[in-house]
Specification:
about 150 residues; Arc Repressor Mutant, subunit A; 5 helices
């Protein structure tokens, strides 16, 4: 069925469940975020990884995984793709040669700069829908759910 021909289904108690509302909001905002970053060909996780590397030059892979909640098995292909695109590099760690120190390349800095500008527009759209106060309240409440 298409568009207006769809029957509006009753969802029962689902809209009153925090988990359901969070998941629906997450799906909607991620879809919008993916669209916002389309011009720089970055996915949200790639954006987050580049941001953490930018803010912490020389960071270890395990630290990025822990900070962003990424499984190491999923991180390796993600980092391989960032390296293949010339956005990040692994260098031998100074203190421990067995671990890699991650750095952005000049291209990585450039792409992340453009991505941040696109992200600012995306965030302004969210703030426009929630209001500045509503956005701050939402971040505060979500932070309370994230931190144990």
């Amino acid at each position: 069925m298409q568009g207006s021909n769809r029957r509006k289904l009753r969802l029962g108690p689902l809209p009153d469940y925090v988990g359901y509302a969070l998941r629906r909001a997450q799906m909607s905002t991620v879809t919008q975020f993916v669209g916002a970053l389309r011009d720089v060909d970055l996915r949200p996780t790639q954006f987050a990884v580049l941001t953490v590397i930018r803010e912490n030059p020389g960071v270890r892979q395990s630290e990025v995984c822990a900070a962003l909640g990424i499984k190491k098995a999923n991180f390796v292909p993600l980092l391989n793709e960032l390296e293949r695109r010339g956005l990040a590099v692994r260098r031998a760690g100074v203190a421990d040669r067995r671990s890699s120190a991650l750095h952005l390349t000049a291209d990585g800095e450039s792409v992340l700069g453009r991505a941040r500008a696109l992200h600012d527009v995306y965030e302004a759209g969210i703030a426009g829908r929630l209001g500045t106060r509503g956005r701050s309240q939402l971040l505060s409440l979500l932070g309370r759910l994230i931190e144990p």
